[in-house]
């Protein structure tokens, strides 16, 4: 198996008039500053939000030495060799506290219960034999065994989570474990969306000849909601300069970001770039990627602007590669890059001049995981994105063979 990802070869094959994907992402991120406003939220409402402040531990976790097992708390000096018999002097369940353990005795103890003073080990019950009020310890005992030490998870006063953390379920649990019931997060990002195209009709309406359903609305708005944005959906916009100017002005009024689909190419029916140039500023990036070459980026009023292409797969891919990192940065998240893994390719591919984002699915065979390619990779074939569980990245000019390593971005965690 060889890694055929060779940057020097990739650079040599890239189209000179198109901006490499990484440079385009870097330029967009450089233009974005996190929203300054914060709010205090109940911990239960904080999933997917970004911490605006560090969370510090007001207590140590665990708060006291406690048993990791159901068994018997003993002093190791009483059990230097196997077969010692000890009197069971007390019983300590989780939620209770015991008394000081006298020499030569044991405490029946359960998982999570505090280890009593005088005990320095817990013997699991499977190694013990209860006999009346005695227990025979059938093993030599080592100091500290089966004891969870106070503070071994979280030290008192330590930082539990840093500002910039996007809160996941396990993070909520961690914050709860130090007794905190509210968190300070960045406010929700306000994103205005609209969808250009005279051919567009909303689902539920009949289609006239030449019309299609506005699928991008559902893809894009749901992607935004899945990463915690407040969406102001301005709907379908006809392909006229006047309508595009109107909606753009309206969109920018109370948005941090205006995100659109369609109308960003250089066709006669593409008015988004022109409108943006008139009302704001445009950095038109023709990006060296497939799908999704035209992505308009700029500003309108106080809002950033990103115009994604119209093709449904291009919308999905360019959202994940450009809009998502930009949004995470605006939300104050410390980590904005998607996770890129390495996977065995299950297909041959002759790379073109542009960096390609192929829709693939992870499969398994006797040699482990590999990437299976969806057979129809057209930028209008939205089935490919629904079928796939991730994107394989093929750098410009790379020829991929079955068994080569390919970069893979899983959708899981992205949307
Ligand atoms: P455009 O970038 O406007 O030239 O659109 C490129 C292709 O994407 C055309 O085939 C459009 O019909 C299609 N398209 C544009 N907007 C949407 C949309 N909202 N939903 C589904 N397809 C769209
Ligand atoms: Mg169009």
Mean pLDDT: 95
Number of strands: 28
The name of the CATH architecture of the largest domain is 3-Layer(aba) Sandwich
CATH topology of the largest domain: Molybdenum Cofactor Biosythetic Enzyme, Chain A
Question: What hetero molecules are in the model?
Answer: adenosine monophosphate, magnesium ion
Beta content? 25-35%
Helicity, in percent?
A: 10-25%
Low-confidence stretches: 1-12
The biggest sheet, with number of strands, parallel, antiparallel or mixed sense and barrel status, is: 6 strands, mixed
Radius of gyration over C-alpha positions, nearest whole angstrom: 30 Å
Helical segment count: 8
Strand order across the largest sheet = 7-4-6-5-9-8
Number of domains: 4
Q: In whole angstroms, how far apart are the ends?
A: 31 Å
CATH class of the largest domain: Alpha Beta
CATH superfamily of the largest domain: MoaB/Mog-like domain
Overall, the morphology is elongated
Structural classification = alpha/beta
Question: Keywords for this structure?
Answer:
6-stranded mixed β-sheet, Molybdopterin biosynthesis moea protein, domain 2, 20% helix, Molybdopterin biosynthesis moeA protein, domain 3, alpha/beta, 4 domains, 415 residues
Q: Could you explain how this protein is built, in words?
A:
This protein has eight helices and 28 strands. With 415 residues, the protein is of the alpha/beta class. It folds into four domains: 160 residues, MoaB/Mog-like domain (Molybdenum Cofactor Biosythetic Enzyme, Chain A), CATH 3.40.980; 49 residues, Molybdopterin biosynthesis moea protein, domain 2 (Alpha-Beta Complex), CATH 3.90.105.10; 83 residues, Molybdopterin biosynthesis moeA protein, domain 3 (Beta Complex), CATH 2.170.190.11; 70 residues, Beta-clip. The strands form eight sheets. A six-stranded mixed sheet has the order 7-4-6-5-9-8, with no helix packed on it. The chain has a six-stranded mixed sheet with strand order 16-13-17-21-20-18, sandwiched between helices. The radius of gyration is 30 Å and the shape is elongated. The N terminus is likely disordered. Bound molecules: adenosine monophosphate and magnesium ion.
């Amino acid at each position: 198996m060889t890694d055929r990802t060779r940057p020097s070869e990739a650079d040599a094959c890239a189209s000179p008039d198109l901006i490499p994907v990484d440079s385009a992402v870097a330029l967009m991120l450089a233009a974005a500053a996190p929203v300054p406003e914060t709010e205090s939220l109940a911990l239960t409402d904080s999933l997917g939000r970004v911490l605006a402040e560090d969370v510090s531990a007001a207590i140590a976790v665990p708060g006291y030495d406690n048993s990791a097992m159901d068994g018997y708390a003993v002093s190791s000096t009483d059990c230097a060799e196997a077969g010692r018999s000890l009197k069971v002097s007390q019983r300590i369940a989780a939620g209770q506290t015991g008394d000081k353990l006298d020499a030569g005795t044991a405490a029946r103890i359960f998982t999570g219960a505090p280890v009593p003073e005088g005990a320095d080990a817990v013997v699991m019950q499977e190694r013990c034999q209860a006999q009346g009020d005695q227990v025979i310890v059938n093993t030599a005992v080592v100091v500290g065994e089966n004891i969870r030490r106070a503070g071994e998870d979280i030290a008192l006063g330590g930082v539990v989570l840093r500002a910039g953390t996007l809160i996941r379920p396990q993070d909520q649990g961690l914050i709860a474990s130090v007794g905190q019931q509210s968190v300070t997060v960045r406010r929700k990002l306000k994103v205005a969306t609209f969808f250009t195209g005279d051919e567009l009709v909303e689902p539920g309406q009949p289609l006239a000849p030449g019309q299609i359903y506005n699928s991008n609305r559902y893809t894009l708005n749901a992607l935004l909601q899945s990463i915690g944005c407040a969406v102001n959906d301005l709907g379908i916009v006809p392909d006229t300069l006047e309508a595009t100017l109107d909606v753009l002005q309206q969109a920018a009024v109370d948005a941090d970001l205006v995100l659109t689909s369609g109308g960003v190419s250089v066709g006669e029916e593409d008015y988004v770039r022109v409108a943006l140039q008139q009302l704001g500023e445009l950095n038109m990036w023709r990006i060296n990627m497939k799908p999704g070459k035209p992505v308009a980026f700029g500003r309108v009023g106080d809002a950033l602007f990103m115009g994604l292409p119209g093709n449904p797969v291009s919308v999905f891919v360019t959202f994940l590669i450009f809009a998502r990192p930009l949004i995470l940065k605006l939300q104050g998240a410390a980590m904005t890059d998607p996770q890129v893994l390495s996977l065995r390719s299950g297909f041959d591919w002759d790379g073109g001049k542009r960096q390609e984002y192929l829709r693939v699915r992870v499969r398994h065979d006797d040699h482990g995981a590999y990437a299976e390619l969806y057979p129809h990779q057209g930028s209008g074939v939205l089935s490919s994105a629904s079928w796939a569980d991730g994107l394989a990245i093929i750098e410009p000019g790379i020829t991929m063979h079955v068994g080569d390593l390919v970069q893979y971005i899983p959708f899981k965690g992205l949307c």
